[in-house]
Amino acid sequence: MGCGWLGKPLAAHLMKLGHTVKGSTTTASNIQILKKNGIQPFLIRLRDGQALWEEFLRSDILVLTLASREAKDYELLLQKLQSSPVQQVMVMSSTSVYQNSEQPIDESGATNHSPLLKIEKVFRAQTLFQTTVLRFAGLFGYDRQPGRFFPAHKLIPMPDAPVNMIHRDDCIGIISSILEQKAWGGIYNCCADTHPSKRDFYTHMAHSIGLPTPQFDEGSSGIPKVISNLKVKETLSYQLIHNDLLQVKSKT
């Protein structure tokens, strides 16, 4: 549900593995695009009562790759799920739910009051289906280039703080691993192995696409955050495709 920057290539990957995939979009012009890619398309807006909910949710597994952080949207979705045959749900969340810490943060780390955390809890409390939560670090890859994240006039704060990022290829790889291994019911941090400084990472990514060195706010400071991906690697035996952030090239 949500065939955008992550959902559309994920659907294509899953079809290559032999899965039958339905895909939702909120834009009518995307229907033909999804159909041409072999995805069974559905025009669905969360607050649209006329959508083909029953047919779309006639499936074993629902993967949510939605941009919305509005709890009301997910409450409406949960109402639809109550009468569906869906057995497992995968919810995309973010490592932004964690408080900053001097120590590496695993899935038991202290959390804040993020709306995403509330959405996670509502889904995990359901008994009609199992929920797996993926907490993604900063997303990048392909047309989402970190070298363009900060305009030339904007200073990057805390230049010596570590970054927590994950490439789209690894997002898809981890989702696929969970589906293949039926690793339902858990929470997983999804992040690259390395955590270079913002100075090193954004400079590398800017140079890789021919842009000048970014500008940094040398006077800013704060508590850093380093996300641990140990559970993904140990529980799923997942090996990251782009494990070293300073080795990623601009073409990916």
Structure characteristics:
single chain; 252 residues; alpha/beta; four-stranded parallel sheet; two-stranded parallel sheet; 8 helices; 8 strands
Describe the structure.
The structure is a single chain. The protein is α/β, with parallel strands linked by helices and about 250 residues long. It contains eight helices and eight strands. It has helices at about 5-15, 30-35, 55, 70-80, 115-125, 170-180, 200-210, 230-235, and strands spanning about 20-25, 40-45, 60-65, 90-95, 130-135, 140, 165, 185-190. The strands form three sheets. The chain has a four-stranded parallel sheet with strand order 3-4-5-8, sandwiched between helices. Helix 5 (about 115-125) links the parallel strand 4 (about 90-95) and strand 5. Helix 4 runs parallel beside helix 5 (about 115-125). The longest helix has 14 residues, at about 170-180. The protein is globular and about 55 Å long. The two termini are about 25 Å apart. The mean pLDDT is about 95.
Number of strands: 8
Biggest sheet features = 4 strands, parallel
Gyration radius from CA atoms, angstroms: 19 Å
Flag low-confidence runs. none
Distance separating the two termini: 24 Å
Order of helices and strands: HEHEHEHEHEEEHEHH
Structural class: alpha/beta
Strand content: 5-15%
- Overall residue-averaged pLDDT value: 94
The helix content, as a percent range, equals 25-40%
- Report the total helices: 8
Q: Major sheet: order of its strands? A: 3-4-5-8
Question: Which outline best applies?
Answer: globular
